[in-house]
UniProtKB/TrEMBL annotation:
GO terms for molecular function: acyltransferase activity, transferring groups other than amino-acyl groups. Residues 17-185 form the N-acetyltransferase domain. Pfam families: Acetyltransf_3. This is N-acetyltransferase. It comes from Nonomuraea aridisoli. Keywords: Transferase. The keyword Transferase applies. Coiled coil: none annotated.
Amino acid sequence: MRHPLDTLDWPISTERLLLRRAAPDDLDATWAFRQLPETHEWVAAATETYDDYRERFLRKERLVDLLIVELDGRVIGDLTLKVQDGWAQEEVADQAKSVQGELGWTLDPSYGGKGYATEAVRALIDISFKSLGLRRLHADCFYDNEPSWRLMERVGMRREQHTVRDSLHRTKGWLDGLSYALLAEEWPAHE
């Protein structure tokens, strides 16, 4: 089955950025910022060595939902969109197939504070709702990862859940977690 991102015409340009599908050749560029302490601390699956990262990055299931963010031809970050089924009762489960998405992002910290992450995530939200026809998007993070949840708020996502010490961090132990979401019908108000 084709991934919904395969149906789009890539690359997609924003005001300053270019979004495109990830390719094996993006391995080194993404490793350069993903192995930095300030990003490595928060990514869901951190790899300690380049060889481990290469093995993980090149998995087909990893590349299928990964997008690259470029600025003037330089890779400055990546985005993920995992298209998912919505929860549904059995009788209507077929109507909940591939209707929502989970968003993720990692930006090279040297490009932080310039609005690039906000611009890229807004573009991904727009693609998700307008081009792919998804009905709902969500994203999760540790409460301690303030830049991530601040980004969710900047793009118009709503905080739906603040959980208490339910999220296990690899070095910090049990931390609070946050969940944010946005519905397609809410999106035009944030453009």
